[in-house]
Amino acid sequence: MRAGLGFDMHRLAEGTGVLLGGITLPFNKKLTGHSDADALCHAIIDALLGAAALGDIGEHFPDTDPKYKGASSIELLRQVAAEVGAASYRICNVDAVVVAEAPRLLGFKESIERNIAETLRIEAGRVSVKGKTAEGLGPIGSGDALCVQAIALLEAIS
Ligand SMILES: [Zn+2]
Fold this sequence. Notes:
By secondary structure, this protein is of the alpha+beta class. About 30% of the residues lie in helices and about 35% in strands. It has 5 helices and 7 strands. The chain is globular and about 45 Å long. The model has no long low-confidence stretch (mean pLDDT about 95). It binds zinc ion. Zinc ion binds near residues 8 and 42. Zinc ion binds near residues 8, 10, 39 and 42.
């Protein structure tokens, strides 16, 4: 068994929705970044790569590479899941915490979890996503940013 940790943070700017786990939550802001800025996918990618000791998201998908400008992070997550499988690991579970003052995850949690599970080709019950606020503190509390922590557990199948 191998555990991996992932973290990501993106700025929030004026927009029409926040993309998390491939699902857009309607909101008056959006996440900004080089790719589609899906912080949940990015944190899970790093958790999976970390568990398999396969490097990190920046090495796999450099933000200096124009190829990844506006890239679909759910597709990058799919690629990483395939890579982890090719390295003879099975994904046991993924858990994540999204820290944001708004939007609230409530009402979107299940569709986000289902979308991630389908992307990783694992049962829905193996993916958990939790929402948390920053109690109004710091850049997250003021609504200028959102961060995600994720952990993944892999089992060697060789
Ligand atoms: Zn990111």
